[in-house]
Amino acid sequence: MELTKKNEGQVIIKPPISSVGIPGWIRENLFSSPFNTFLTIIIISILWFSIIPFLKWALIDSSWLPDANCKASGGACWSVISSNYKIILFGFYPQNILWRPITAIFMLVILLFISRNRNYWNAFLGYTWIISLVIMGILLKGGIFGLETVDIQKWGGIILTLLLSVFGLTAAYPLGVFLALGRQSKMPVFKTFCIFYIELIRGVPLISLLFMSSVVFPLFLPEGVSINAILRAQVAIIMFTAAYIAEVVRGGLQGMNKGQFEAADSLGLNYFQTMRLIILPQALKIVIPPSVSILISAFKDTSLVVIIGLYDLLKTTQVTLSEPKWMGFSAEAYIFIAIIYFGCCFFMSNYSRKLEKELDTGL
Amino acid sequence: MTEKKNRKEDISSEDTVIEIINMHKWYGDFHVLNNINLTVKRKEIIVVCGPSGSGKSTLIRCINRLEEHQKGQIIVDGIELTKDLKNIEKVRSEVGMVFQHFNLFPHLTIVENLTIGPIWVRKIPKKEAEEMAMVYLEKVQIAEQAAKFPGQLSGGQQQRVAIARSLCMKPNIMLFDEATSALDPEMVKEVLDVMIDLAQGGMTMIVVTHEMGFAKSVAHRVLFMDEGEIIEENEPEEFFNNPQNDRTKTFLSQILY
Q1: ipTM, 2 decimals?
Q2: Do B116 and A285 touch (CB under 8 A)?
Q3: What gap in Å lies between CA B47 and CA B215, rounded to an integer?
């Protein structure tokens, strides 16, 4: 409906100039009353006295080069990063073949970006994922095609963080959905098992699960059998996250209108078809925001593997900081990994909002 | 009216599609359906009316086992409804149902709503199912909305889509559970027109409704239910002009003002 198509003689009244544009916005939101004006001034002065010194510390007085003399400058010592980024990002991965993990991470990032677009979700993308994961595994592990073998114990830093979180989250989500369906199921034994599992896992902290996986679990293995520590931590993270996802998904299932089940039943769809085609697409859409919260917090919780001696991003940073030369510069190092974590979390939450918008069908 | 008479002759006395024998149902201790006996012939149109809470919706929901009966028999198209899931799914795929609140699938487009049953239950190829869906959408005069989502349609349009969705399964029997009672008044007619059209096409229908005009013009029989029992059962003319039971008389005086 364009303005020009309006009836003749109908006067179009525009809003007053003072309420539109930047000056209008400022007046409306920052200086609309004496109290508001007072608050605005207070906040601007707080920002002034905090942001300016921070920028001075972080940018102006700071030293960036690997061999800079940090103690003298008085500003931020980003040299801690530039000198140690290999250790922080890749742990004890042999430094002469870092191109391998870098390529693998690059592949992963590209795939994640492609997978953001739902139009590309087809069998081909699925195969691409599988093949790429195999290639990434080969790149990291080596051992064939003349690539030097790198022991899994040496995988560290961002490699380990990404490994634990990408596999952890992608495996935990379907397992959580399965548990939620189980908890709603009419089969008493299966249902009891799911309830028991969910409540048990939710009742203990992740740290205790990680401890159990690293200390208690190996006691039950037969002599001579050992399961890799990373794999055990991975399983603990999956089990833990799945229980939380299950409860969120259950909330979504309970929020479904009974009429949807009845309509699906009345068409003759069986249980699995009803769930897959009718109920889950709607229920999972409803619970996107809380599920993403859980995935984000699970992503950050992967840093807890520090306590069972795995060298994830946080641990490699701590290793760097324990060197006498870099003691006292923990703020810089932690800001650096905070930025990495923030980038990943922001990607997830941003994507979830995009997905919600795309899936919105107006009802 | 003459057309209705003609169709009555089509209804052969042998061709029974639904048979309900001494059927009872309880919700806890509450006796919702009390000794229901009903025989429905092919191409018969039956209107069920009665005060709210009388069990009329429950009755038709038992026919496709959305509700389970606890005593007696329900035989639909030769298949007795028992706990056997295969039989239940078979009956459901032969019996279409239209709900008061439409119950379209909001995450699917109109055409996907129509094809989901044929594709997954009837195993019809997608392309064929879509063509068939368009035929039925044409029939309920809503083909131009095929690519939209249910949330973008008016109530009357949604209900017509819901009818088309059931028809895509090529059902032998259609159940209507107060299909027009959630609609704005100006949309009731468009849905009733579709239902009348269907009735005249020879569909077997059981219709729970308060639209007495519909009952008068197309029904072969009207059932009146109260407190879980079928109180009175008659041809529409007799039913409206000469009700036998006191409760029927009271009910009719309340709705025909």
Answers
A1: 0.89
A2: no
A3: 6
